[in-house]
Protein: Solute carrier family 23 member 1-like
Amino acid sequence: MRQLQGSLMVASLLQIVVGFSGLLEFFLPLIGPLTIAPTITLIGLSLFQVATNTASGQWYIAMTVVALMVIFSQYMQNIPIPCGKYSKDKGCTRINFHIFKMFPVVLAVCVVWFLCFIFTITDVFPATSGHWGHKARTDNTYKYLQQAAWFRFPYPGQWGVPTVSLGGVLGMISGVLASMIESIGDYYACARISGAPPPPAHAINRGIGVEGIGCLLAGAIGGSGGVTSYSENIGTIGITKIASRIVIFTSGIIMMVLGCFGKFGILLVTMPDPIVGGMFLVMFGMVAAVGISNLQHVNLESSRNLMILGVSLFVGLSLPLWIQANQADVKTGSAQLDQVLRILLSSNMFVGGFIGFVLDNTIPGTPEERGIIKWDNIVDSKAENISESYDTYSFPRPIQKLVDRWNWPVYVPFCPSYNSYISRLVKRMAACCSCRKKTN
Structure:
């Protein structure tokens, strides 16, 4: 555990430097729809096995969750529930509360969780482990709820002084690199699913850097895993249609507070696996669909684009599957390099996104054919509709007002006022090279 902590903390420093220094600017202008589409699509498709494994414990329960989430979020989203409201001026009044539109996931989970509880106390689900349907019982993890402490606050050094090893650091660095690729895809998916313009360079720089800080803090207080964006959360935004940063910020505070209460955390663990699998089926499907929707910008009648897309998706699914089953066959003569390659090549998003990136920027094609023109036009058109006083990707209002008083933030890669000369230069060079290749 201490070695994992130390390796995670060292590897997170690389992510912090890459994010806040703006090194990603050299690559962001070269990222187009044919890079984003396979990356985001593979984020959802690569998790189908996780969804299948958790849902297979009781398919009837999992499909009930899917059905209720679809019914609540789509068929019943415009059905209001009358509620009372009191104010000093008007007294008691009636308002319409769209509960099905705001809480489709919570409602579906609560209804099916209650059904699982009823089926558990009536022994509809078998009590013997190994029988189909046993995983849908609500008392499988009850003993962990009894053993959990009421309150526990994480603190640095709780497992001892973190240690560092070369192999552990290289392994974590390869995980960080794969995580950054996935995070960039998550940012674009989140922006698209919430109706926001594609994230600019400063927002991506800031996101990657802050994720690095999160990994550093996680390792410092005893965590063995890093902190990164998660596809299920993006799917939740798409279903609930709530993408407010204030809501996300408040949710984060609530999670940190409740995370100190062990009983509450274990209570969530008691949720039967088939319920979780049902949520995964919907949410991961939403993420994959968002990735596919990016193809509307490219010319799908072009054999060039079809080849890039097909190769990226198919190799992105096939190679990681083989690597995970045959890790011993990855031999370069260096144990550290073998470990790095295993981690990188087992990431569907890294493999598919990297292949799409290389092919899209090396195979001749016009900007119109690649979808770059429409992509840039959408960015410009959406940017014009943003409030002049408050940009979508700005800092919170009080901080932004303070930053706007100075001129030096235009040189800081993670500030909203950052003037990215590198991105514009790289984009122009790429466009010129692409046009020359097509002409030749």
